[in-house]
């Protein structure tokens, strides 16, 4: 093997290492973005579920009025 071949092989391996490093960085970045997006969707789904579990008067900040035993109205939040 001549010195020129050795030099080109060395350059090739350096380039391969560089591209592999960039590829892993890009993969890590996309994985991080994916997990962030998944967390956002999970939070949004949980918020929607909690919203549907609430009653209309709770969503619209209204006071629920309930009658007591003697007939007078009682507010309950």
Question: What are the salient characteristics of this protein?
Answer:
rod-shaped, 10% strand, single chain, mainly alpha, 77 residues
Describe this structure in words.
With 77 residues, the chain is mainly α. It has one domain (3-76). It contains two helices and two strands; from the N terminus they run ααββ. A two-stranded antiparallel sheet has the order 1-2. The radius of gyration is 32 Å and the shape is rod-shaped. Residues 1-62 have a biased composition (Basic and acidic residues). Residues 1-77 are annotated as: Disordered.
Question: How would you briefly describe this protein structure?
Answer:
71% of the residues lie in helices and 10% in strands. With 77 residues, it is mainly alpha-helical. The N and C termini lie far apart (86 Å).
Quaternary form: single chain
Percent of residues in helices comes to over 70%
Strand order of the largest sheet: 1-2
Number of helices: 2
How many structural units, i.e. domains? 1
Question: How do the helices and strands line up, and which of them pair or pack?
Answer:
Blueprint: H1 3-53, H2 56-59, E1 64-67, E2 73-76
Antiparallel strand pairs: 1-2
């Amino acid at each position: 093997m001549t010195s020129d071949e050795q030099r080109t092989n060395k350059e090739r391996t350096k380039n391969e290492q560089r591209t592999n490093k960039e590829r892993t960085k890009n993969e890590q970045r996309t994985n991080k973005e994916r997990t962030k997006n998944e967390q956002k969707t999970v939070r949004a789904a949980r918020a929607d579920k909690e919203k549907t579990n609430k009653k209309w008067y709770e969503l619209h900040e209204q006071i629920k009025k309930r009658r007591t035993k003697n007939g007078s109205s009682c507010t309950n939040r």
